[in-house]
Write a structure and sequence with these properties.
Chain A is built from nine helices and nine strands. Chain A is of the alpha/beta class. In chain A, the strands form two sheets. A six-stranded mixed β-sheet of chain A has the order 5-6-7-3-8-9, with helices on both faces. A three-stranded antiparallel β-sheet of chain A has the order 2-1-4, with helices on one face. In chain A, strand 6, helix 7 and strand 7 form a beta-alpha-beta unit. Chain A is globular and about 60 Å long. The chains are: A alpha/beta (267), B mainly alpha (300). The interface between A and B is large, with 52 and 41 residues. Strand 4 of chain A pairs antiparallel with strand 1 of chain B, so a sheet runs across the interface.
């Protein structure tokens, strides 16, 4: 109840309420990253040689200004949805918050270590699901004893064993949905201070989605902050009370989910 | 620096101040060297589990499975023996050429495959790096440990070859343990250097096979090390004899091969000192160099 009351106050107002504890402060962040375009048309061997001789910069590296001066503050117990069309910088912003992509300008301050949970968070595809669970937990810094304790729960939660014993099969044999479910299950075991979820819930089936939304609510209750990137506005409405709308790397709107989602749909 | 931003003039705290007041830290900041070392140690269970998993998965598509850990060094030794022992009959200068050759090949293979795999230690694990937080140094260490397990298998094969070719089993065999330990430390350091460079310069992977083959020829693996002194000017021979791979190979031969005691180019004490110096310099230097790039590995 405490949490619900705390987050009732309007989320888009400036950090006036002193009793709220910020967990993430994003301060005028710009993210520029370099893309290797790979072998483009003008990238033959002679062209490459010419570049080396004339010492010009390789044209197959392009800089993309993905996030352009975004600022906001997130508080304890908040679940924040992140929406916007493809390529609007949502995933890039999450990576920056997670500390995986350094900002070119501005700064991100976080409480503890944010964990990013994305669909491409590949583990070892040649290994069985069980072994991936153990590895994933160890990689999150759990002790071997704790891993032994939680491993069965993770398999159970992911539901990959619902159609036979898939946990002992290599992960490359899994469907994309099963893989994403297992990854979410692993990441959701730990109580993260800040959990960043990138499209991970979209791949699960209806039953799993209900279960994972429940888990997201639990994580929030443990005083964590949850970020959810999704194109399914339904799951954002269900889990988040505050939503940030990014467009072209710029923060377009930040406020209560209903307001922002309605504006987004009616754009 | 962003985290020492000047305070705003109006009463509202600046983001940096607010962050400081609530104990927030800059995301993705690099930990101190001491803290980083502690983190790597805290992740030792992950490192061992990951390297064991890598070993298991590397042979998961073969029918003979982990038997290849024994078959690979055996096949290697057979091929090199065929070319350098039989066809080129290089063995006139060395008493027990086949054991001499196998010791060199197996010890060098350890460094070679560690470096070859270490160059892509970051690029091959980008998925893991972008998903989870752990000290990235765990990855090059894992690469080395995977090859270390392969080395242990090779050593079993080598012991059989050495004994079968008529070498006695002496107390000096015990010295193989510190030799390989020093080599492992050296390899970890070198892998960290290669991993960091390889994460920035992706073309390096294509060049490495040639570099490593050159290194192989410069390490006295396939022919007697004394040939350097016979055929090269003094300074070049001295330079080649300071080659770390050659030093570890010579030490392994010193400890395992009774027949080779007269062929050592440098006295054992000097070899030990150089082996120790290389391990310390590369181990510490490589770790510090890798740590300095810690922030950027997720960029790709």
């Amino acid at each position: 109840m405490d949490v619900a009351e705390q987050t009732q106050s309007k989320a888009n107002t400036t950090p006036a309420a002193a009793n709220r504890v910020p967990t993430i402060i994003v301060d005028d962040v710009h993210v520029i990253y370099r893309i290797h375009k790979g072998a483009a048309a003008n990238n033959g061997a002679t062209a490459a040689l010419k570049r080396i001789v004339s010492r010009t910069k390789t044209p197959n590296i392009r800089e993309v200004h993905a996030v352009k001066g975004v600022s906001f503050t997130a508080y304890q117990g908040e679940a924040i949805g992140l929406i916007g069309s493809n390529g609007s910088g949502k995933s890039t912003l999450l990576r920056t918050i997670a500390g995986l992509l350094p900002p070119a300008q501005g700064a991100v301050y976080t409480h503890g270590q944010p964990s990013l949970l994305g669909v491409n968070a590949a583990l070892l595809n040649d290994l069985s699901g069980e072994r991936n669970v153990v590895l994933g937990c160890l990689a999150m810094g759990m002790s071997p004893e704790k891993v032994k304790r939680v491993a069965p729960d993770i398999i159970e939660f992911s539901g990959i064993n619902e159609r036979g014993d898939f946990a002992s099969l290599p992960m490359r044999t899994y469907s994309s949905g099963m893989g994403a479910r297992l990854r979410f299950a692993i990441a959701a075991t730990k109580d993260h201070d800040v959990l960043l979820i990138d499209e991970a819930l979209a791949t699960g089936d209806r039953k799993f989605r209900a279960r994972s939304e429940q888990r997201v609510r639990e994580l929030r209750a443990n005083a964590g902050t949850v970020f959810l990137v999704s194109h399914a506005l339904g799951s954002i409405r269900d889990t988040c009370e505050r939503t940030i709308w990014l467009e072209g790397g710029v923060l377009k709107m930040d406020g209560p989910t209903d307001e922002v989602c309605n504006a987004y749909e009616g754009r | 620096m962003a985290d020492t931003a000047v305070a705003d003039l109006d009463s509202r705290p600046s983001p940096a101040e607010l962050a400081q007041r609530h104990g927030l830290r800059v995301a993705g900041a690099r930990p101190s060297l001491r803290e980083y070392t502690r983190q790597v140690w805290a992740y030792r269970h992950f490192i061992t589990a990951y390297s064991r998993a890598k070993v298991a998965s590397s042979f998961s598509n073969t029918q003979l499975g982990q038997l290849w850990q024994l078959l690979t060094p055996l096949t290697n030794a057979a091929v090199y023996y065929l070319i350098f022992g039989v066809i080129l009959s290089q063995d006139r200068n060395v008493d027990n050429f086949i054991a001499y050759l196998c010791t060199g090949v197996f010890v060098f293979m350890f460094t070679q495959s560690t470096v070859a795999n270490g160059t892509s230690a970051i690029t091959n694990n980008l998925g893991l790096i972008r998903a989870l937080h752990f000290p990235r140094a765990a990855l090059p260490v894992t690469v080395t440990l995977v090859q270390f397990q392969q080395l242990l298998m090779s050593m079993v094969v080598l012991a059989v070859i050495v004994l079968a070719t008529g070498e006695p089993l002496t107390l000096r065999w015990l010295l193989i343990a510190p030799t390989l330990l020093l080599q492992t430390i050296f390899n970890i350091g070198l892998t960290m250097v290669m991993a960091r460079i390889g994460s920035k310069i992706t073309d390096l992977k294509q060049v490495m096979p040639f570099v490593l083959r050159t290194w192989l020829y410069a390490s006295g693996v396939l022919y007697p090390v004394v040939l350097f002194r016979d055929h090269l000017p003094q300074w070049a021979a001295t330079l080649l004899e300071a080659n770390p791979a050659l030093i570890y190979i010579e030490l392994a031969r010193y400890s395992l091969l009774e027949s080779n005691q007269d062929n050592l180019v440098n006295p054992p004490t000097q070899l030990w000192l150089m082996a120790l110096a290389w391990a310390a310099a590369m181990g510490i230097g490589g770790f510090v160099y890798f740590w300095r790039g810690e922030k950027e590995y997720g960029r790709g």
